[in-house]
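User: Show me a protein chain along with its predicted structure.
Assistant: Here is one chain, sequence first, then structure tokens.
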Amino acid sequence: MCRSIKTLRPPAMPEEATEADIRAAALQYVRKVSGFRAPAAHNQEVFDRAVEAVAQATVELLDGLEIRGAGAQRAS
């Protein structure tokens, strides 16, 4: 796990994760996996698609988690 990616679920994060929080985590993940901080122009499109896919998967994960002892699921 990339050390700069923070936990986005309660109670680790007191407020609901914002779209910016989720996108930042997705970007860090794709950077770590690809080994590129900024992709070359010929890789930009696939890099951006990967960031969006990871961000969407993160939203789905957070929406589906049941945090026991912390009330109901994350509201959409």
